[in-house]
Amino acid sequence: MEVALLVIGVILALVGVAGAVLPGLPGPPISFVGLLCVHFSPATSEIHWSVLLFTGVLTLISLLVDYLLPLLGTKKFGGSKYGVMGAIAGLLVGVFFFPPFGIILGPLIGAIAGEMLANKETNEAIMAGVGAFVGFMVSIVSKLVICGIIGFFIFKNLI
Asked: What is the pTM of this model?
C-alpha cells in the first residue's frame, strides 16, 4: 500500500504538469492530490503541515488565476468574451491538431477569430487577441510554476 501511494503520488504530479498546459485537466489540484498521497504514505517522512498549507493555498490561487488572467488580458486590450472563447477553442484545436506549436498559436488565432466574429475591426480584434493570448500564456506559466513547486516537495520527500 505504501509503495502504491508513492507511485500514485508521482504519477499525479506528472499528470498535473501536463494538466497545467492541456485544457480540461486542472494541473495544480491534480499535483496537490499527488502531494497528499506522498504525505500519507508510511514509506516517506511526513510532509510538514506548513508545506501542505502553502501548496494548498497556491493551488486555490491557481484556480482563480486560471479563469481570471485570460479575461483580464482580453479586457485590458479591449476585447470581449468572444475573444476569450475563441482563445479556448483555438487552444483545443491547436493542442490536438497542431502540436506543439498549436498550444502557442491556437489561443492567439482563436481569440482574433472570436473577435472578428463579434464584428470587431481587424486592429481591435488583433489587440484583443493579443490580450487574450498574453493572459492565457501567463496563466499557463503560473500553473506550471505551481506544479513545479508541488513536484519539488514530492520529489524532495522521496529522496
From this structure: 0.80
